[in-house]
Structure formats: C-alpha cells, structure tokens
Specification:
- Residues 31-172 form the ENTH domain.
- The chain is mostly helical and 363 residues long.
- Helix content is 67%, strand content 0%.
- α1 packs antiparallel against α2 (34-46) and α7 (142-168) runs parallel beside α10 (230-259).
- The longest helix is centred in the last third of the chain and has 43 residues, at 297-339.
- The termini are far apart.
Length: 363
C-alpha cells in the first residue's frame, strides 16, 4: 500500500513538472524580446524535469549555437549564460539542476569562446563556489536526495575545471574534438612544449591546481549505482574526458620535474612528494568511478616512481644536513672547551704547565 502511494505521488509530481515545463516554454515564447526569447526557449528545452534522458545532442548543439547567431555582440552569449544560471539557482529539482550543470559543462568543453568567456567571468569571475550549490538539496524523495549529492559534486567539478583553466592559461583539451590519433599526438606535443623553460615554482603551482581537480573527482557520491540512469551516466562520461585531459597535463609536468629532480632543493622535493601522495590517495575512488578507464597503469606507475625518487632524494638531502649539523656542533663544543680553559692565554693552544703548590716556599 505504501509503495503504491509513493508511486502515485511520483506520477502526480511528474505530471506537475511536465505542465510547469510547458508553461515556462509558453511564457518564454510570448516574450516581446525576440532574441532573448529564443535563447530562453533553447535553454528550457535542454533542461526539462524529465529524468529519463540527458539533453539530446541536438538540444545541446542548439544552446552552443547561440553564440554563432550573433558574431558582433556578446548580448546573446551573455543572455544564454544568465538564463542557465537563473534556472540553475531558482530550481529545487535535482534533475533540472543536473541538466543545467551538464549543459554548462558542455559549454566549457565544446562551446565557442564567447560562451566560455561569459561563464568564466560570471559575476564572481569564476571563483571558488561561484555556482553556489554547496547546500543544494532536493527532498522530494530518496532518489532526489541521492541526485542532490551528484549536483553538489558536479558543481564543484565545473568550478574546479574553470579554476584549472584559468591557472593553466588555456581551457582543458577535449580529446573527442580531435579527428584522428595523429592530431591528438600533435596536440599533446604542443602542450608538452608549454613546460619547457618554466620555473620549478610555476610547474609545482600548476600541478597543485591539477591535483585539486583529481581530489574533487574522488569526492564522488557513494551512490555509484545511479550511473544506471542515463543522465548520470552521461555526466560521468563527460567528466571522464576532463579526467583524461588532466592526466595528460599532470604527466607532462611530472616528467619535466623528474628530469630536474637532481637540481631541486629540499622544499621543492617535499612539495612534489606531497602532490604525488595526494594523487595516490585519490586512486581508489577514481578507479571505482571510471572502472577500468580510470586505472591507466602508466599514469599511476609514474606517480609511484616519482614519489619513491622524491622520498629517496629528500632522505639524502636531510642526511647531509644532519651530518653537517653534527659536525658543526662537535666543532663548536671543541672550541668552547678551549676558549673556557682558565689556564690558557688568549689565542694559546697548548696548556700552561701546572705548578706544584706543595713545594712552594712561603715567606
């Protein structure tokens, strides 16, 4: 009886959501601002309440095409991002929020620069938690509660993606956009050249940002079974593309730092070791999320190898320091003994012969 009631409530809720979507489309269509109206309609169609499927490729393409419909102005791209953000922040539905985030993620990885720039400079300049979903919660039912975890996680990932892109100075590569393996190889070689001539501090700073991205992935919700839902599956698939891009960026910098290992000071070695340790701590959850795709032995082998080399070098440097300190202390003790001997004249190194007072003549 209880199950039947829950099913009935869910059907009523779905019906209400469908009516709400249709009403929103009608209102957007009747708007007197025709260009903005067209933008709102495209966004609404891509972010319906239906959980059965993610936005279709056609719906996503229609949103991304908004920028190309007006090459002389940022008006439409700005309206597009504003509309997506407004819908994201107004909705109480985890499904709608997840679809808004999925659409925004597509803007980041596949959208034209006019759209990307509008998102990157959205009110708080793409800063930490600028999507403001850290407290999002849909209490409609248990499934919605679980989806809420995915909404918060996904929002954090998109924020981290934009942060990484800003620190790197370019947007993360999207491997699917390349038409051939040779193109991918050339792209990786071009990216690798970005590490040449960079300071150790610059390389470590960017490695730190990339590691933070992996840490956000590793915070994936426990409800991994929700990947059976097509929307969640497509979200994870798109995140997987970013993950592989981040792996390549990390590998380039780790290989460069490995080549410089002999010339690093102890602070730099310690920082590098701390980063690879943090990467290793992410491994279990990442492998669980992407199954075999996250395993990629070469990446994890490199991480382990650099950690071992770094720990060994750190131990050697600290060992040398200890030897120098012990030797310095021994020399200081010896000097202190000589200088405090009451039977030595200043600068004298040989002891003064002692006088036997037993045979002294008293007058």
């Amino acid at each position: 009886m209880m199950a039947q009631q829950k099913m009935k409530n869910k059907l009523i809720r779905n019906l209400a959501h469908n009516l709400k979507d249709k009403a929103s489309l009608i209102v957007a269509t009747l708007s007197i601002k025709r260009h903005v109206s067209s933008v709102r309609v495209r966004v609404l169609r891509a972010t319906t309440h239906a959980l059965t499927a993610p936005p279709s490729q056609d719906r996503i393409a229609a949103v991304l095409a908004i920028a190309s419909s007006d090459n002389t102005s940022y008006l439409l791209p700005r309206a597009c991002i504003d509309t997506l953000m407004d819908r994201l922040h107004r909705t109480g539905s985890a499904t709608v929020a997840l679809k808004c985030l999925f659409t925004l993620h597509n803007v980041v990885v596949k959208g034209p620069f006019t759209l990307k720039d509008q998102l990157a400079y959205y009110p708080s300049y793409g800063g930490h938690n600028f999507l403001n979903l850290s407290t999002f919660r849909d209490n409609s039912d248990f499934e919605s509660l679980q989806l809420s975890d995915w909404v918060r996680w996904y929002a954090g990932l998109i924020e981290q993606t934009l942060t990484v892109s800003r620190i790197l100075g370019y947007y993360l590569r999207y491997s699917s956009s390349s038409s051939s393996s040779s193109t991918n190889t050339n792209t990786i070689q071009d990216s690798k050249s970005l590490t040449l001539g960079k300071s150790n501090a610059d390389l470590l700073y960017k490695i730190g940002a990339l590691v933070a991205f992996l840490e956000q992935i590793s915070k994936v919700p426990e409800s991994l079974e929700l990947q059976k839902k097509e929307l969640v599956y497509e979200v994870v698939k798109l995140v997987g593309e970013d993950y592989r891009s981040v792996q390549r960026e990390i590998v380039m910098r780790l290989e460069e730092m490995e080549g410089r290992m002999e010339n690093l000071d102890v602070a730099e070695v310690s920082e590098l070791v701390s980063y690879v340790k943090r990467i290793e701590e992410c491994k279990e959850r990442i492998v669980m999320l992407f199954v075999n795709k996250g395993r990629k032995g070469g990446f994890w082998d490199l991480v382990r190898e650099i950690k071992e080399k770094g720990l060994k070098m750190k131990g050697e440097i600290e060992g040398k320091w200890l030897t120098v300190v012990v030797a310095s202390n021994a020399a200081a003790d010896s000097t202190r003994f000589i200088n405090t001997n009451p039977f030595l004249e200043p600068g004298q190194t040989s002891p003064v012969p002692l006088t036997s007072f037993a045979f002294a003549t008293v007058r």
